Fold this protein.
Amino acid sequence: DRMVDCLAYIAGLLVISVSSVWGEGQTVKITDGVYGFDLGAFGNTLPYSAMFVVTGAGVMVIDPFNSDSARAMLQEIRKVTDEPIRYVFYSHDHWDHASGGQVFKNEGAEIIAHNEANEWIKSNTGPDQIPADSVWYGNTKSYTLGKFTMELHHFGPSHGNGMTIFVVNSQPRVAYFADIAAVKTVGAFFLPGFDTKGWENTLEKAVQLDFEKAVFTHSPPQGGTKQDLVNHLGYVRDLRDGVQDLLKKGTNPFAIPSILKLEKYADWAGYAEQYPLNLQHVVVEALLGPWARPANKKNTIQTGSANSAKSANVAKWHIKSGF
């Protein structure tokens, strides 16, 4: 069955992303004190770029990814500075970003995540994952260490839970984006975990933030600029507008991925393979509404006691109205 084979292939890639041994990692100085790090697990096929900031009073790290990449990044940090690792930030709850934190915790780091991300992590902890030591709430928070302040921004549902955008007040100011944008690259697969309208809203707010350069998880560690974020917002809008226009004309939804060709993005990475899958996601949302998110994030499966089944908190699922 082709569908089963496809799902198995995707699952295999996701497993690799969580547990693979890094290849030829690359560290790039973005500006004074700010570095991008690509663990190199996928060669040139799929960058996984993290960011770390050397402040003069300690190091701040964004996204350890997994234990192998965390150890590799720690080695790279030690080539730059012997300052202690003070803060490790999770961008969101997904295992391929928020795993490997124990490596830095062993160095004395404090792990920090948005409360929405951490609640999900506590109930659905990955095999290489630990919950945060501290959480933050709401839309904005900042952490000052040495000569730098790291701003944290959360603009509601977009991808995963607790998606956080980071901006450091370096010269020039540098932002970090996990999964929600990249340099001339379409979305991954069928956009798993994306709320498309929320994604668009988050990008709209993000382009208003004060920064010039940006590091993107799935782009090489030298990153890009705010214009790359603007370009990605345009891609999301074009997807949604194109699907809505065809549906209004009475087009068969199942035919849309083979009809709607956004040729202006044909030179983007992943266009041939991933773009049709991106379209499928947008079509499904247009018909069913945004992807379901749990109203109660407590685990539905409890173990360890005879009465656990009685005390299990069953998540209540809902679909938010509107597209």
In short: Residues 1-23, 297-323 have pLDDT under 50 and may be disordered. The CA atoms of residues 44 and 256 lie 31 Å apart. The first strand starts at residue 26 and ends at 31. The two ends are 32 Å apart (CA to CA).
